[in-house]
Structures are given as C-alpha cells and as structure tokens.
C-alpha cells in the first residue's frame, strides 16, 4: 500500500536586515571607524575592505583590537548615528520583490537585526516595504541563536517550518545552533568563500533563487 508523506513547508522566514535587504556595508564600515578613538581600537583601512569581508566578525574585532567588553556600547553608538543616514540608504530592489512575493503567498515574515526598531521601521516605511509581521532585535552581537530560540519558543514555531536568511557567517552559526535551515546570500557583508566555509544549507547569488529554495 502506498503511503502518503506530508512534506513540511516553510511557514516562517526570519530575515536579516543590514546587508541582506539594505545596502549599508559602507555606512557601517565608516561608523565603525568613526568611533575608533572613543573606544580605543584600530581603524579598518578602506584598501583592506576585501580582506575584512573575508574574515568573521570575531576575527575582525580581534584583528583591529576591539575590546569585546566595549562592543555593546559601540553598537549603541553606531545605531544612534546610523539613524541620520536612513533616508539615503538604498534597498535591494530584487530582494524587495522577493519579500513581497513571500508575503503574498501567506508566509510569515520576521525581521531580525542588531539595529534599532526605530531605524528599521523608518527605512521600511520610506521604501514601501512594510511586509514584516514582526521585528525582533538581537541584543547579542554574537549569539543571535538565543534571540531566534526565544522567538520560536514564544510563537510555538517548528524548526522544520522555519528558515533564516542572512549575509554573514555568524547567521549560519546561529541557524545551526537553533537547528533551523539557513539561506546565505552573497551580496551582503561577507564574501562568498567565507559563507561557503560555514556550510549553509543553501547559498544564493540572486534574490530570486530564494523563492526557488522556499517553494520547492
């Protein structure tokens, strides 16, 4: 007798903000250098940008002598200054269409970021992208999985029905720790080779490929 196997479908997409949806890499890089004197660490030379994108965040902070103890305060300062540039940031238009398509198909969209909710909501409104059911802030720069775990538990989400989209190596680490699948995108902060080294479940070079991954 033939058995009917019910295939689990993705119902919730947790999507990263900076780098994945908005082109803000240069801004964050400039703000990082702006606060180097205040927090007593080395500036990242512009000519080393490719190298910087080839190593993980922890390696970057170690390379440029950023004290991990100071990271929370540094992030707060960057986020406050970031607010001034929100009106000038550019959205990834193809990613915008992908999110709109997912929303229209009834998939729950959740945005996760270390950025402030105020900055994100302002950007989404300016770019006519108010597609997200919720915005969750990851207070931990490292350990995003803890934020994901709390959200999934509070909303009774199933691991096999949830997927994370991000542009950084640390997103892959977080997804694996949270036991959910991850789609890594190559147009953000981290270089493709760094993402590949993290062994994501899916690696896409074009936003439209995200639809293929989620719908198949």
Order of helices and strands: EEHHHHHEHEHEHEHEHEH
Q: In total, how many domains does the architecture comprise?
A: 2
Mean pLDDT: 93
CATH superfamily annotation of the largest domain: HAD superfamily/HAD-like
Largest sheet: 6 strands, parallel
Just name the CATH architecture of the largest domain.
Answer: 3-Layer(aba) Sandwich
Structural class: alpha/beta
Count of DSSP strands? 8
Can you give a write-up of this model?
There is one protein chain. By secondary structure, the protein is an alpha/beta fold. The protein folds into 2 domains: 12-24 and 90-215, 3-Layer(aba) Sandwich (Rossmann fold); 25-86. Helices cover 44% and strands 15% of the residues. It has a 6-stranded parallel β-sheet with strand order 5-4-1-6-7-8, sandwiched between helices. Helix 1 (25-34) packs across helix 5 (71-82). It is globular. Residues 1-5 have low confidence and may be disordered.
